[in-house]
Write a structure and sequence with these properties.
Length: 355
């Protein structure tokens, strides 16, 4: 097995940097363990658009060379001084699915899972690295005699690209983890027995359902905050830069009804998909998610949490990954505000450390 689902790396490190390479920016968080306490060393974010002549906030596709250049620039700018790195793997290059199988021994699973996975993974098994985890008996899955298995698969091409990136940047690849797990860990565990994590990026929104500190369901929505920026630019006749500022500074709290309408049009589709994921989980496991944790840069839009609470009829919280670390008091207000943007980077940094 590839090991994407293990909660922590087997090797103990005292310092590591978590790296989240999104479509519009790279985020890094460096953590050091001091006296068994996770201490924030540094953090930083760098827009990728300018590396290909595009605006800040624009989702772009970079070559490996450009991605390496941007990451090296960010590591220097943030003052990261460790080479021990955890990389978050994009959910769009992965498959996550919960299946149920007849009770078998751990040894027999080595044969059963690859066979069963072929039914759910839409590409040849030889093109992906496969991993799986036996989920605990916490939920009513309909047939208690069967085992719930979370299977994951990552494109071999994706893994090779991160191997190359590691070599080009001089980083030591301690951990590769699918970003949904990093987001769950970075967001922290809450009191609700079943909850959702919603990671809003520039081009995609990722939603996962968590129960018993395990992911049971994950889904990618092909809508992100960049679509709002581009729609504002087109419909209001302003530049992309001006539209990005309008989105960030006013968001859904704006008094301009045209702006509200454009933003709501994009998010209405996101809300429908989140409801569908929640309903699917409830139908399958007879339990309903009781809360939703917002993560990602797109979740920072003003007024979004309140709208989501009303639309989804669910408690909505913002991820606060830095609250789990020792930080200077003077930084707490700032880090609480920007925390959701660094949820994945924080989570994969923790993954790279022994708990």
């Amino acid at each position: 097995m590839a090991g994407f689902l293990n909660l922590f790396s087997s090797k103990k490190n005292t310092k590591a940097v978590g790296i989240d390479i999104g479509s519009s920016a790279i985020k890094v968080v460096e953590i050091e363990v001091v006296d068994d306490v996770a201490k924030l060393v540094t953090y930083g974010s760098l827009a990728l658009g300018p590396y290909v002549g595009k605006e800040v906030g624009r989702a772009v596709v970079l070559t490996r060379e450009k991605t390496s250049e941007a990451l090296i620039d960010l590591l220097k700018e943030a003052g990261v001084d460790t080479i021990n790195a955890g990389f978050a793997l994009p959910l769009r290059s992965s498959f996550l699915r919960t299946i149920d199988v007849p009770p078998v021994s751990t040894k027999d699973l080595e044969t059963v899972i690859p066979t069963e996975s072929r039914k759910y993974i839409p590409i040849p098994i030889g093109e992906v690295a496969l991993d799986w985890m036996v989920l605990p008996k916490l939920l009513n899955s309909g047939d208690s005699s069967r085992m719930n298995i979370l299977i994951s698969a990552v494109y071999n091409e994706t893994l090779e690209s991160f191997d190359t990136l590691s070599l080009m940047t001089g980083l030591k690849k301690e951990v590769l983890e699918i970003e949904a797990f990093s987001a769950m860990r970075g967001a922290g565990f809450i009191q609700s027995p079943v909850y959702m994590v919603c990671d809003i990026g520039a081009s995609l929104t990722k939603v996962s359902v968590v129960a018993g500190q395990f992911i049971w369901l994950a889904h990618t929505i092909n809508k992100g905050s960049q679509e709002i920026t581009l729609n504002l630019s087109k419909n209001l006749g302003v530049t992309v830069e001006e539209a990005e500022i309008l989105k960030r500074e006013e968001g859904l709290l704006t008094k301009n009804e045209d702006v509200k309408s454009i933003i709501n049009l994009v998010f209405s589709n996101v809300f429908l998909e989140i409801k569908r994921v929640s309903s699917l989980f409830e139908e399958r496991y007879k339990q309903k998610p009781e809360a939703l944790i917002l993560a990602g840069g797109g979740s920072l839009m003003k007024g979004l949490a309140e709208i989501m609470k009303n639309e989804l009829s669910i408690e909505v919280l913002h991820a606060d990954p830095f609250s789990r670390m020792a930080i200077l008091d003077v930084l707490k207000p700032v880090l609480k505000e920007v925390g959701p943007e660094f949820t994945v980077a924080s989570g994969v940094a923790l993954r790279a450390l022994e708990n």
